[in-house]
Design brief:
The protein has 126 residues and is an alpha+beta fold. The chain has 2 helices and 4 strands; from the N terminus they run ααββββ. Helices cover 44% and strands 28% of the residues.
């Protein structure tokens, strides 16, 4: 009497596990980039709560941003990369930047981030 074997072969396991391993590797490479974005977003929210009275100037906003970015140890984007624009009675503080993570040899993953906070009226948007 012959018995029939059932199950997944070694090649089948490789076809299942290789795409999963690539996705996990990409997630590991992207984690520091997203953690940096969370620091930038937290910094903008801290500046918003610190200067919520609305009487801030562009210089005061830049000084507060620089202080909070130093505390959070954010190297990119710098204070110069963050836009501060007048919006009626208040200011819009906008951090819009691209960051990339190397994946394999010359293959990179590019991620674009955008965070805007309104000081002195209005709300915040992601």
């Amino acid at each position: 009497m012959r018995s029939k074997q059932t199950g997944v072969t070694f090649i089948g396991w490789m076809l299942l596990l290789i795409p999963l391993a690539i996705c996990l590797y990409a997630a590991l490479r992207l984690t520091p980039i997203y953690l940096n974005y969370m620091k930038v977003a937290r910094t903008l929210e801290q500046v918003k709560s610190e200067l919520k009275d609305g009487g801030a100037s562009t210089a005061a906003i830049r000084n507060s941003l620089e202080k909070h970015l130093d505390i959070e140890q954010v190297e990119f984007p710098s204070v110069k990369d963050i836009k501060i624009t007048r919006n009626g009675k208040g200011f819009d503080v906008e951090a819009e930047y691209d960051d990339q993570a190397p994946l394999f040899s010359n293959v990179f993953v590019l991620v674009t981030f955008h965070k805007t906070v309104t000081l002195g009226g209005g709300g915040a948007s992601d």
